[in-house]
Amino acid sequence: MSQTNQIILTLKKALKANGIKYIDVANYLYISESSIKRQFTQGDISLSRLEKICELINMDISDLLELVHLESMQVEQLSIVQERKIVSNTKLMLVTISVLNNLTFEQIFQLYNFDEAELIKLLLQLEKINLIQLNPDNKIKPLISRTFQWQVNGPIQRYFENHIQDDFFDCKFNHAGELRIAINGMISTSSNQIVHKKIKQLAKTFSDFAYKDQNIGFEKRYGTTLVIAIRPWELPEFSMYRREANNKVFS
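The chain above was modelled as a monomer; its predicted structure follows.
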């Protein structure tokens, strides 16, 4: 990606994070919405106009360039070896999830039973693998991209899958903030694929809210896990009565 495109992309993310839409930018610059959309799409924004747009989010161009630099350093994914190291140490795993949820040093220290030296040592391990930057006064700066993902079927995913089976579903899902829906029916392959798409859209919505809500006070945010699943499946008690000739393979 060219440097110009990266600047425009970072600016768009900054505007979105501040709830500013194209129409707001257009009104601020006294031009049409279609014009500002075209300039963003083509990457054809003058330096003076770029400076004016930055004013909308209380930034100057140097702040924007700093964001571009940070995004270029952001981690998209850890290696299997790095994930395995995190999983091997429960405290390191806890601190990793905490910083990925944008908790500060003080909030982690307040929530969990660490002494200060121990917590710093754990954070330095995360800094060593470029997951965070630990600044003076123990200020934590996460270095992950918004699209950060764990390795598919890697150590972290397997860790959570084991705990989801053993602990997450050991619940009646009848308290505030809890919901469980189980639906059974017979649908076609094409309908199954459409449901897959809808599920992925819901997962993205969850991720978008998690990103947006980082700006909300810590006391108003709650650690939340969303588990969505769909598969061709039948109760074993039912399938044991099927005639082998009637068995179908999903395709």
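The chain has a mean pLDDT of 87.
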